[in-house]
């Protein structure tokens, strides 16, 4: 039976290839009189039975979407353990990132934690230092929020100029999911924060024991301790079973595998807020505690990995915009490298500190284009150009590059990451 | 249940807090008892650290450089090390103890971390005496060269934000756009099959 099934599969695959070739011939005109074989011929999936409900207890994308995966860039880091990969933004739509495609950034690999053995400790300047189990945490009042998480280093390789060819690589250290968890303020209230408290230290349970200092006000304002993303448990690579969520702030602070929150009266100046995640300026001084991710956008299609293949005529331009300062109020797009701008159409839900989807439909006459997008957030901040950022900061800040991206569309529809005058 | 509002969780014990709360602040809060000398640090460093960070902190391959790079922060290619960039010695002690060696974290004793920290100071010429002993007592007397090299986040005072002007919509720049830099020319994107890039 298995054998029959498998031979039927290879037949089906072979049939598809032939069918695709025939369809292409039909579209090219010659066979149009007979009609499109995709329609006129009975396809295998019209005839044979598909898999039963017992075949895929946890489903996967179609085999025809196998190119929609996270990618890494080996030369960026010393090894793949303390490294990063990239969300395939060019293939996604809407504002929610599928869990399996959310970019990863680890400093000591993916911790494999038994949730029954996971603990969250709150200590320091509190009335009663506490230990919570996962079961304890799930008895707190829960909230659901959609937020973007952007690595501070997203677009960091582009400070000196166009380097990586594709929005997956230039902008793919970002994802956006719905988190379920408890407000950090409820946990802190349970321990009883002392009067002298001003800062929090969050710590992970992995072998990097990631630590970041954050001001107490942020912890009381909107931080979540989350255990679900898009309805299911966090993926191991996203901090299973528990992570910190800091809406609008740089991804490094969203400590994964969260095991401890310490309350103190001063920042700790940990490695990830001194050596790393400080932004060197042209004068040799460096900014520290650059927490917020500023207003930003990128056109995801057309883009180098998503060229125009349909020729002249109606075209859809789409992209993402986000801001750590709140909701996106407007996105402008330019087809001529910033000479003229048109306000794009925002579509879908607009959540504060989440990704926003925009579209601009236009008729392409086949001439070369210089595509740009420019986001404006609810606080009135306008996304700057890369040159404006460089004028203010120099080229060695590594982090927080939210400059306007340019894609060059050639006459054949190929798209390239460029810088323009 | 004596704590809180919802009476969830339980009080942490002293031993539990000691086991996990190992962070050290620049003012020395959190430093454990102990000490170690440059001389004691050298063989430890050679055995546990040099295969990634190099014999002199110069680093192998893409692993982090620990020493040198003085006066490079305004150059085109800054070399940011403990000596040239890090503001506080507490971070060195804290980070070695919590996360190093890479792949064998938490395997060093408190005295070994003092010795390694002393040796890293020596590699960076912050101390020059091989007999130098770093301890809980003298720790906060050591200053790193770039302690004053950090400023508060003042991004929003940059002209492109501070002006908060309505952005231009029509005829914003003269002439046609010209390409000044191509990503495809650099050719370092993985899909282009360039995998021998160091």
Walk me through the structure:
The complex is a heterodimer of chains A (421) and B (198). Chain A is of the alpha+beta class. Chain A has eight helices and 24 strands. Chain A has helices at 2-28, 37-40, 44-47, 134-137, 167-171, 184-191, 216-221, 386-393, and strands at residues 71-72, 83-86, 105-106, 119-124, 130-133, 143-150, 174-183, 199-204, 211-215, 224-229, 232-233, 243-245, 258-264, 279-280, 286-287, 296-301, 313-322, 328-334, 342-343, 345-347, 356-364, 369-377, 406-409, 415-420. In chain A, strands 5-4-13-8-9 form a five-stranded mixed beta sheet. In chain A, strands 6, 7, 10, 11 and 12 form a five-stranded antiparallel beta sheet that branches. A five-stranded antiparallel beta sheet of chain A has the order 19-18-22-23-24, with no helix packed on it. In chain A, strand 20 (345-347) and strand 21 (356-364) form a beta hairpin. Mean pLDDT of chain A is 93; it is low at 1-23. In chain B, 28% of the residues lie in helices and 7% in strands. In chain B, helix 2 (38-48) packs across helix 5 (110-123) and helix 4 packs across helix 5. At the A-B interface, strand 1, strand 4, strand 5, helix 6 and strand 13 of A face strand 1, helix 1, helix 4, strand 4 and helix 6 of B.
**Rough outline of chain A:** globular
Supply the helix-strand structural class of chain B: alpha+beta
Q: Strand content of the residues of chain B, in percent?
A: 5-15%
Poorly predicted ranges of chain B: 192-198
Q: If strands are numbered along the chain, what order do they take across the biggest sheet of chain B?
A: 2-3
Helicity of chain A, in percent? 10-25%
Measured distance between first and last alpha carbons of chain B? 58 Å
